[in-house]
Amino acid sequence: MPKYSNADYAATILRLAMGVLFLIHGGLKLFVFTPAGTAGYFVSLGLPGPLAYLVIAAEILGGIALILGVYSRWVSLALVPILLGSIYVPHGAAGFLFSNEGGGWEFPAFWAVALIVQALLADGAYALKRSRA
Hints:
Helix content is about 70%, strand content about 0%. It contains five helices and no strands. The chain starts with 5 loop residues before the first helix and ends in a 12-residue tail after the last helix.
């Protein structure tokens, strides 16, 4: 049985929390807003509609990969552009605080930083497929 450090357990907690959040965000776009509704929202922001389908897939598949611990380092880095894009397009004009009307960019910025921290920490304990540095 492998001996894990506190850093391994911390990485696991972070990985699981972010995986669940991505799964929830992707599920919201899939089941509540619907893919067509999400695509329409993307178009209203000036983004290409098909990008919505890629974001939904990335959030759901990325969330599952993080929860399972499958290449967590690389999945985390791959998800950073989604958060940076959400800062730039829908949240940037609303200011920093997420409580501002339209939701500021405070939460997506923190989440992007957490993804980078996850990439630096790697998979943590109980990962199914460990990332290689």
